[in-house]
Design goal:
Strand content: 15-25%
Radius of gyration: 24 Å
CATH architecture of the domain at 149-170 and 231-398: 2-Layer Sandwich
Number of strands: 17
CATH topology of the domain at 149-170 and 231-398: D-amino Acid Aminotransferase, Chain A, domain 1
Largest sheet: 8 strands, antiparallel
Structural class: alpha+beta
Distance between the termini: 57 Å
CATH superfamily of the domain at 149-170 and 231-398: ATP-grasp fold, B domain
Number of helices: 17
Length: 514
């Protein structure tokens, strides 16, 4: 299948942008051949001056909203680093199972624990109890969204992508042919001969449990399954099938902001694929799940980082050079993986809008992909609450900075009466919201750490978004502006922040922009 160029729709997207909202629309011309924007009547010197003006404005003009800072945990990452002194105005609260790594980072960052939800600045954990998202104060944050299983379950992802495909009439080459059994049994029977082998996964399963392969139509299925086209020509590493774990952060629902982490996991099967590919019972050649393979003969743990790339679990770092040496275009592979991830989140996002305050949530996901021998990417599943255990040095290397940077990227505000009032007033003041959204976008760019933005970008904004909101359009226009245009846009909305702050009686210091 051929991948569509995600930037092909960009001229139309930019044409929708009004003079008022883009700021300095006529400063740009679109280069049709090279698919990028050029700055009219400009040179590097004036561009650098405009950038400096914007940076100076953002540095000097305060929103009076401070964000919490998190630091890598002491025990493993930086043994000589001093623990930050406790901050009496910020607390975290544990709600359900929480990886130890979260607690260590909170400890290293000087953030004490509270047992009370209403005192917490941030709530962590994967509770199965009553949802908290709709009862929190607007300036509190929780590390999960409502309805997250619309992307984080096999059924939810299948339903979301199926509806998206029907709505947009777009081909989704990253999503293998899939059926929900028994609901789509008739369609599956009709298309069974499309592929020689199918992989069958229990809808409620995890860690490889209950999975099996078929090359003949069973008389019946005893429970609910997701049945998927099996990728029978997988890319191999040292003769072994493997998959890739990408870490993805959704730090804002409206407008949508998505980020991918620079590192991740590579998980290898334990039996030679070519020797066993016709043996559908030998799942150690076909499944790459760590939980399934860790107790199999021949499984090699990687603890010493100097052996990263030699065992059955790697970081991404040794994989990309390995693939480049074998002629694969790794930039294209990563780009196609990012397009697949963005599309899946766009398809699932409408189900997340049940929250009273969407801004209270941020969430970390693990997205699993497999590659075929031509370098095409296929999405296996999206995991909510991805495993963050740190039993090995390899896990520590990836997950300690990953989680620290995720928390910093999430822009968790310190809880004050001012921050709460600002959140509430944003609901009724559109220009104030536009101002804050663009300022937060820029603040996040300064807190990326190992993260890298995949939505919105000049390429991915062309991916069709049926549920696009006004604030999505605000960010789409924002990233298309030059530095001078951004500065004008902020100054045009600056008075809204000034007037709001002047209304808040408990502000004792003068507003820096009044």
């Amino acid at each position: 299948m051929q991948w569509e160029n995600p930037i092909d729709g960009l001229p139309n997207k930019l044409a929708e942008t009004s003079h008022e909202n883009r700021g300095l629309d006529l400063l740009y011309s679109y280069d049709e051949g090279n698919k990028h924007l050029n700055l009219k009547n400009s040179n590097n010197k004036s561009k650098n001056l405009a950038k400096e003006d914007l940076e100076s404005y953002i540095t000097k003009v305060s929103m009076h909203n401070k964000y919490m800072d998190f630091f890598k945990y002491v025990n493993f990452a930086l043994p000589t680093e001093k623990i930050t002194q406790p901050n009496p105005n910020t607390y975290y609260c544990v709600d359900g199972f929480t990886p130890r790594l979260y607690l260590d980072i909170m400890h290293s960052s000087g953030i004490p624990e509270t047992k009370y939800y209403d005192e917490a600045t941030v709530i962590v954990g994967s509770s199965k109890g009553p949802p908290l998202q709709n009862i929190l104060m607007p300036n509190q944050r929780i590390e999960r969204f409502l309805r997250t299983f619309k992307i984080g379950s096999k059924i939810g992802l299948h339903a979301s992508l199926t509806i998206y495909r029907q709505h947009t009439r777009k081909n989704l080459p990253f999503y293998p042919q899939t059926y929900l059994i028994p609901e789509e049994m008739d369609s599956f029977k009709k298309h069974f001969t499309d592929h020689e082998i199918w992989i069958v996964k229990p809808t409620g399963g995890s860690c490889g449990r209950g999975i099996f392969l078929i090359n003949e139509m069973p008389e019946k299925f005893n429970e609910q399954y997701i049945v998927q086209q099996y990728i029978s020509n997988p890319m191999l590493v040292h003769g072994l099938k493997f998959d890739l774990r990408f870490y993805v952060a959704m730090t804002s629902l409206n407008p949508l902001r998505l980020y991918i982490y620079r590192d991740g996991l590579v998980r290898l099967a334990t039996s030679d694929y070519k020797n066993c590919q016709n043996d559908l019972q030998n799942l150690s050649a076909h499944l790459t799940n760590f939980t399934y393979n860790k107790d199999k003969p021949g499984y090699k743990y990687t603890d010493d980082l100097k052996f990263d790339g030699e065992g059955n679990k790697w970081s991404h770092d040794p994989l990309w050079p390995f693939l480049r040496q074998r002629g694969y275009d790794t930039d294209k592979i990563r780009k196609n993986a990012e397009i697949a991830i963005v599309t899946a989140f766009i398809a699932s996002r409408p189900y997340f809008f049940d929250q009273k305050y969407p801004r209270v949530s941020t969430e970390l996901y693990g997205v699993d992909m497999i590659l075929d021998d031509k370098g095409n990417v296929f999405m296996e599943e999206v995991n909510v609450a991805p495993a963050l255990g740190t039993k090995s040095k390899l896990d520590i290397k990836i997950k300690a900075p990953l989680l620290t940077d995720f928390l910093n990227l999430s822009l968790i505000p310190e809880r004050t009466e001012l921050s709460n009032s600002l959140e509430v007033l944003m609901e009724s003041n559109k220009k104030l919201s536009e101002y804050v959204i663009c300022r937060e976008f820029e603040e996040a760019e300064r807190r990326l750490g190992g993260w890298h933005r995949i939505y919105p970008t000049m390429e991915t904004v062309s991916i069709e978004m049926p549920s696009e909101t006004h604030f999505d359009r605000v960010l789409r226009r924002w990233i298309a502006m030059n530095y001078a245009g951004k500065l004008k846009y902020l100054k045009d909305r600056e008075s809204n922040l000034s007037s709001v702050l002047s209304m808040v009686e408990y502000v004792t210091t003068p507003c820096t922009i009044c």
